[in-house]
Amino acid sequence: MTERLKVYLSGIQAGYLTWDSELDVFSFRYISDYLGRDRAVPISKSLPLREDSFDALASRTFFENLLPPEVVRRKLEKILHHDWRNTFAFLKELGGDCAGAISLCPENVEPGSVDDNIRELTEDEADEILRALPERPLLQGLVEGYRISVAGAQDKLVVRVRDGRLSLPLYGAASTHIVKPEMSICHGSVKNECFCQRLASRLGMAAAEASILDIKSRAYYVSERYDREENGGFVRRILQEDFCQAMGVPAEEKYETDGGPSAVRCFRFLRDNGFGFPALVGFVDALAFNFIVGNADAHAKNFAILYRDGKASLAPLYDTLSTAAYPNLTPRMAMSIGGAHDFDEVTAASFDMFAEKCDINPKFVRDRIAKLSDELSDAMDDVSAELSDTGHPSPLYKEIAAQSQRRLRQLV
Question: How far apart are alpha carbons 258 and 266 in whole angstroms?
Fold first, then answer.
């Protein structure tokens, strides 16, 4: 038995995802109408425009990367009544609004294309929904028409935010923000992530806009989606894909130690695919920044490519939490630097080795680190004061700053 889902890109059908349920085999194929369009673009670097179908591995890898990981799907299987390994069923249930400009619909369903499918929440409703996320990931089973998929193991709610009020996009309407509650194993994670994101922006790096929203005396981290653009009330989806999707790497291999992309492989991928100097500089800065603030979870799914008006660029930074602020979390970095896997192993020679393996001048990398370090102390003070003045002080800010200075001294 075979089933199909229609695959849309920015509201235009691009192809079909077919699944043979007996063999559990996937196949994606562009439709001729899409291939014949002016300025048709592929939905992924790993799925270039062509008439032939893509094989099972390439098809499954890209689309499975749109879904949350196993730990989330294991919770959802009891709600959706699908085995967590049934990728097609989860895409069918959650694929109405995915990362970037992709949406998936059953053959007899049209995607939501109007923005009036929005339900504004009262503060009590928002509080109830956010508190229920640990038991009801992605709000499944609570609100009809909410079909949204987002990667990552952390609890989150995908919404629209306006004037501090949350609204649910229903029946395929586009979302604009991601809301995260406090992580149970990381006290102060909301303030931690907002601090790191704003710090990156203050240092001149492209980073997703971050803020803290208080609902019923609880603080929530809010990230504005860089793959959405709002104009006059209409929300436009912008094509993006994470590095695992672009490089054809399964989601379960996102960590280098699991066979996933290394920092060198990511840099070479950008260079070999014609990304310009700003993208290469941006990746080097991101690698250095994640080391400095102590983000050990900067894996291949936490880097992405953004496609805007036919041009590809490195997406803004996102998910930059200082994991080193929590002794219970591993110091082992998702991507090694010059053969060094733990924070305390990294030296200037580690970055030199990274540069040499990338065939770039080590002085270029050292200069980028020097630029970040020269501005770091003042930037941290500014961001700490900014968050404290808005009612969100935290001792974590000083702890992250102190640890960052210690890591910089390792490079001297």
Answer: 15
